[in-house]
Amino acid sequence: MKGILKNWEKMTSLPVAVLGRGLTGQGVCSLLKRLGWNYRIFEDKGVELTPNKIRSSALVVVSPGFRPDHPWLVMAREMNVKVLGELDFASHFLSSPITAITGTNGKTTLTTLITHALNKLGRKAQSAGNVGYSLSQLIAESVSLNSRVILEVSSFQSRGLSCLEAENGIWTNFAEDHLDYHGSLEDYFLSKLSLISKCKKEIFVGRTVQSWAKRLSIKLPEQTIVVPHSQELVYSKDHDHFLNSWPQRENFSLALAYARSLDIDDADFIEACEDYLPEPHRLSKISQFQGISFWNDSKATNFDATIAACRSMKNDIFWIGGGQGKGVQVDEFARQIGQFAKKSFTIGEVGEEMASKISSFGSSAVQCFTLREAVECAYAESNGKVEILFSPGFASFDQFKNYSERGDLFNQYVLDLKKRFATSAQELLY
Hints:
The chain is 40% helix and 17% strand. The protein is built from 19 helices and 16 strands. The longest helix is centred in the last third of the chain and has 19 residues, at 403-421.
């Protein structure tokens, strides 16, 4: 393995300080083991990183959960100890081309879709990054990585990037999110731009990225290509296909533009996407009985994702949402939910505020204290063709471990309802 870190020999004599014991930190440790380097793990609720331990470290590698102004990182910089994010560190040991994907919404879908299609077409590709499999872990487990890496990158990961240079970049969209972390929309935008601006070849962006760049008076890189999405179905083989839904049309348009840059024929790429299935908890219809459809969109943790999900529904919407706030104003979101949803059932930290705001705009809203209560209330008040849409619009950490746990519990509560109230064996099977 080759790298460009300075003072290479120092790395074998002094331990690397790894901040964070989650999936990212574990991946870094796996890579360090393969390199034969010493390391020590530190975390906020565990082993504390003291000034003496910083001084005796060759390098600090930090997980994205640590804010840039964390006291440990401040101390390290003051002591002139090199601090690298996990992606910057791992990129030193990767010679394969990287396609970096970021955006407020659609990152995971686009990452897994492109990886799926390229492999079906015989072009080796592997997903890594924010999809739950760190770049460090991928490199550590690969004896000779000769495939393209499709790298999902969050704003937490991209902020302050200095080393990672992707071949291509895709920036799906941009909307208000994570202001509790970034403090301002400009900082949030610039965090994503720090990743995209370092790409060597074409950068494909959605229209909202272009409009926000103009609004913030920020110039996009010269190699940027703005990809419009058609109002007509882009993916037309199966009208009920996941990729034909409103939120996914732009994703697919971006994927298609990217495929063309690799000299892949449109028809071949479309065919390769035929059997693609979305990741769990991403606008999936999980059950239908008594004319009621139940949709799991637990991964929708911001307003734009939830509004996109609402737009894709065909019948009356009974919306279930809420959770932990992110420092953003909810008034406009509540107004839009009131327009889309016939009835709303709110949960979590923002449940009371959201129910009050939605009601103030003249729509029906009920605060529920638990997700189970919200599911049962929505079902009890439904009659006829209704879409019960669980698309929270907020983070999950006030009541759940993560959005996956939240989504799994929603599925379970719907299954419990179906066992109690399904009227036929056929309904039980769906």
